[in-house]
Amino acid sequence: MANERSEGDRERVTRVVYETVAGILPAVPTGRITGDKHLKDLGADSVDRVEIVLALIDTLGVNAPMACFSNLPDIDSLVDFLVDAERT
After folding, report:
1. CA distance linking residue 88 with residue 34, whole number of Å
2. DSSP assigned state of 64
3. Which residues contact 39 (CB under 8 A, 6 or more apart)?
4. Residues 20/55, Cβ–Cβ less than 8 Å
5. Percent of the chain surpassing pLDDT 90
6. pLDDT in tens, 45-72
7. What mean pLDDT value characterizes the chain?
8. Whole-prediction pTM value?
9. Residue 74, Cα to own-chain centre: how many angstroms?
10. Using CA atoms, how far apart are residues 52 and 64, in angstroms rounded to an integer?
């Protein structure tokens, strides 16, 4: 099925998301970056969040409007969205 997420895809995208967040928020210990957190929980301001999303779009090569990212409740949802966006 087209919308079925493989574990390999999810693990790869999760790693990219965590590395990107850690790179843009270097003061955040990597152990604090977990799927249940929103970027705001990690201290990301609006500029940081835009930088993270743009870096993820560029790195993963997804084509999704910025507005699609604004209502994602946590990093797990961000990963799921990116995995799905890669498939379209």
Report:
1. 26
2. -
3. 21, 48, 49, 52, 75, 78
4. yes
5. 88
6. 999 999 999 999 999 999 999 999 999 9
7. 93
8. 0.90
9. 9
10. 14
Interatomic CA distance for residues 47 and 56, integer angstroms: 14
* Distance separating the N- and C-terminal Cα atoms of the chain: 12
Helices (H) and strands (E) in the chain, counts: 3, 0
Place of tokens 């609006």: 46
Helix 46-60 vs helix 7-24: crossing angle, to nearest 10: 140
49 C-beta neighbours (distance < 10 Å), count: 20
**Residue 87 has what DSSP assignment?**
T
Which distant-in-sequence residues (6+ apart) come within 8 Å of 25 by Cβ?
42, 43, 44, 48
